[in-house]
Write a structure and sequence with these properties.
By secondary structure, the protein is mostly helical. It has one domain. Helix 2 packs parallel to helix 4. The longest helix is centred in the middle third of the chain and has 44 residues. The protein is rod-shaped and about 75 Å long. The chain starts with a helix and ends with a helix.
């Protein structure tokens, strides 16, 4: 369980850095625009500063997406192992595991869809999609934990 909390904390930290980068972009836009109007910074210098800030924000987004992908990959491996164990179930256990595995597979597909949306999100839609992706991965982890409990 500590791994999950560590992964969640790492994902949260990356999300915070990403949001800070967007705030930085907004501040740089306003500041550079103000300085350019005052003649202290050329438009080219203002544009270069903005481009650097955008590149940094994109880098943070890509790191966050990689972290979510790593969590999904790890859960997918664990789910495949559970599916192998579920094949050996019989009778009532088989019926219960069938329902549990169906739910787990549905949550896994939902998390994959959210990850794809996250990968192609624009800056404007990023926060809403990120929240949905985090919830989907959390739901998948919870479903996995419940399914795993049946094998103890």
């Amino acid at each position: 369980m500590p791994y999950l909390f560590q992964a969640e904390r790492s994902a949260q930290m990356t999300a915070l850095r990403f949001m800070a980068a967007f705030v930085l972009i907004a501040c740089l836009c306003a500041f550079n625009s103000s300085l350019a109007q005052q003649g202290q910074v050329t438009k080219e210098e203002a544009q270069q500063g903005l481009e650097k800030a955008i590149a940094y924000a994109d880098q943070q987004k890509q790191e966050y997406i990689k972290q979510i992908q790593a969590q999904l990959d790890d859960l997918s491996k664990k789910i495949d192992q559970l599916k192998d164990k579920a094949k050996d179930a019989k009778g009532e256990a088989l019926a219960k595991m069938g329902k549990t595995m169906t739910d787990l597979t549905a949550r896994q597909e939902d998390a994959k869809r959210k990850w794809q949306e996250l990968s192609s999100a624009t800056a404007a839609s990023w926060e809403n999609i990120k929240t949905g992706a985090e919830k989907a991965v959390g739901d998948l982890q919870k479903a996995y934990d419940e399914a795993f409990a049946h094998f103890k």
